Amino acid sequence: MRYSFADHGDGTGTFTWRVPERRKDSDYTVKVTADNGVQTPVVDSFDISVIDINAPRIEPLEDRIVAERDRISVDVVAHDFDGFDTIMLDAILYRPNGQLANPARYDFVDRGDGTGQFIWNTPTRASDGDYRLEILADDGDNHVVRSDMTITVLDIDDLAIA
Fold first, then answer.
1. HSE (CB half, 13 Å, CA atoms) of 6?
2. pTM of this structure
3. What gap in Å lies between CA 145 and CA 58, rounded to an integer?
4. Architecture of domain 57-154
5. Measured distance CA(116)–CA(74) in Å, rounded
6. Domain definitions of the chain by residue range
């Protein structure tokens, strides 16, 4: 561990410590001894709690417009800025009425490297509306971030035939 203590010579001092990069979410106890060379030294301690705050980040997702029966593919990229965590990705699709879509009707592949792909063959007839796709990125250190996009499914009967 890297630390230092500067004695200011007036009964005060400055403790400086660099948090170890690979030891996140830990508690540390610092023991301090004051000794004036005359009286019995005084020993005290204090605790430092280190909390990892480096949540992953999901690259922005752009809303899409598709027709019923179209296949849509959305590539997902997430980053871990401290570089030590494996990011787990997942996807949830919500129907226009806000209910969860049946997960058996779409696929999400987490490639295990911070990237993934959502694939969905949009439903047929009477399935138009705005669907909400929610992407989740979890770094395994209690940091879960979410990013949403809207997939607007157009009714093919309403589309003009050229």
1. 4
2. 0.66
3. 8
4. Sandwich (2.60)
5. 8
6. 2-50, 57-154
